[in-house]
Amino acid sequence: MLQVLAAIFGISLLVIVHEAGHYWIAGKFGIRVTHFSIGFGPVLAKYQPKGSGTTFQLCAIPFLGSVTIAGMNPAEPIAPNDPTLYPNKSVLARTLTILAGPVANYLTASVLVFALALTGWREAPPAQPNQPANVAASATASKAPSQSHYVRKSVIEAARLAVVVPYTLTVLNLAGIAELVAHRSTEGLMGPVGMGKLVAQRAEQGLYDYAGILILISVALGCFNLLPLPFLDGGRLTFLAYELVTHRKPSAKFEALVHATGMLALLTLVALVTWRDLIG
User: Fold this and answer.
1) Are 105 and 221 in contact (CB under 8 A)?
2) Residues assigned a catalytic role
3) Residue 113 half-sphere exposure toward CB, CA atoms < 13 A
4) Is-contact 65 12, C-beta < 8 A?
């Protein structure tokens, strides 16, 4: 039970961090965020700080989270003279607001890597003589953590790892996505259920493994959201790039249709992968 709670907490924390990135940068540019929700479903409790335009709310199913930015939905009627609405801000303000979510996930991964490196970075046993490096790597990857040793890195080395590890994981993520597209397969994808099972398993193995899987998921969340696909942050950035190049905004109706189509496709994919995780 504790492992399940740890999985829910860890995954939700990473999503909330993502949404908090959007919220924080939006506030810096004076963009109004109407709601910051923890979980989904019926609202159990809500609070609006004095002088704030944001309602913070806790929902019945305390898993994941979301923010609602005023005017971001292209289908909403926009008051052209309201300076707090998302579409009435500069391209730079809107771009940084969208980028803030994935960046928050990458920063979270870097902070976790830095902390692990300072306290004790796990290193696999050295390869045996005449054993190819790639064979040694694959062989030691499945060994128990007790067969590895832990080394406390210097601040400089920890800072280097905090940059190198997220970068390396991003390259692996993109290579994996390219392979899935090339083979037209979803075998490498994992839904919320499968992800929760994996996090729960790692939590049972100890704090180090728990933090390690959160690093992997945080980078994957940031990387995936930057893909230029409808409904994702990368899709919104694509529309902003079009606006920057052409000096005109795309049709609000067209953008709304594209994002709605993307949302439907993404939810369908998540449902299929989740069903596979359940029956698997």
Assistant:
1) yes
2) 19
3) 25
4) yes
Per DSSP, 227 falls in state: S
**Distances 185 to 24, 71, 181, 263 between C-alpha atoms, Å:** 37, 36, 7, 20
Residue pLDDT, tens place only, 52-107:
889 999 998 877 889 999 988 766 777 888 899 999 999 999 999 999 999 999 99
Count of residues in the chain: 280
Measure the CA–CA gap between 158 and 165, rounded to whole angstroms. Answer: 10
Per-residue pLDDT tens over the stretch 138-192:
333 344 555 678 889 999 999 999 999 999 999 999 998 888 888 777 676 777 7
Alpha carbons 65 and 36: distance in angstroms, whole number: 8
List the domain boundaries for the chain. Answer: 2-32+70-279
Pairing mode of beta strands 149-151, 121-123: antiparallel
Reduce the DSSP state of residue 53 to 3 states and report it: coil
Measuring CA to CA, how many Å separate 145 from each of 20, 103, 204?
Answer: 34, 30, 13
DSSP string, 76-92: S---TT-TTSGGGS-HH
